[in-house]
Write a structure and sequence with these properties.
191 residues, 4 helices, seven-stranded mixed β-sheet, UDP N-Acetylglucosamine Acyltransferase, domain 1
Length: 191
């Protein structure tokens, strides 16, 4: 099994692997074109070549990721400027997801044992954001997290455990502030 296959399977892998770094370099080059595009439309076209985007998605540069190819967004998602996605595992956003500026999605983590970290040993777990979620600015989402449909994550929160549908989460680490009523849920219309 290659280091890349180990990464996608959620196993420990060598983060310094040549092939993995080659793919990251291609993504880096695409991000340079995205983040220095002469028009927003040109940036959107480059983004569509980097990742899987549903109809009506909009990403405001600058945007940063490791691979791009492991990111998938449903229809009518919006990412504000400065979003970072460490996509060593899949990052999946459902339909009508809104993400505030400077949010960070981390599928990667490292061992607490410094001997293993010396070799760049890394493990990745996917992140899933279900339909109609609103993530406020500067939120950090840790590896392996699922955020349920219609949830709202308050600005500056750190999400370290799964989020139930229709809940308002806030804090670091994020905790449930209250359940949301259907009438209060965020309905994101197509842009």
């Amino acid at each position: 099994m290659t280091e890349y296959e180990k990464m996608l399977a959620g196993l420990d892998y060598d983060g310094g692997d040549y092939y993995i770094n080659k793919i990251k370099h291609l993504a880096y080059q695409a991000q340079q074109r995205i983040n220095h595009a002469v028009s927003v439309e040109q940036a959107q076209q480059e983004l569509r070549s980097l990742m899987t985007l549903g109809q009506g998605c909009w990403i405001t540069p600058p945007f940063h990721c490791e691979f791009g190819r492991h990111i998938e967004m449903g229809e009518h998602c919006f990412l504000n400027m400065g979003v970072t996605m460490l996509d060593g595992a899949r990052i999946t956003l459902g339909r009508n997801v809104m993400v505030g500026p400077n949010c960070q999605f981390y599928t990667a983590s490292h061992s607490l044992d410094y001997h293993q970290r010396r070799n760049w040993q890394t493990m990745c777990r996917p992140i899933v954001v279900e339909d109609d979620v609103w993530i406020g600015g500067s939120v950090v989402i840790a590896q392996g997290i699922t955020i349920g449909r219609g949830a709202v994550i308050a600005a500056n929160s750190t999400v370290t455990r799964d989020v139930e549908p229709l809940t308002l989460m806030a804090g670091s680490p994020a905790r449930c502030i209250r359940r949301l009523e259907i009438g209060e849920s965020v309905e994101v219309c197509g842009r």
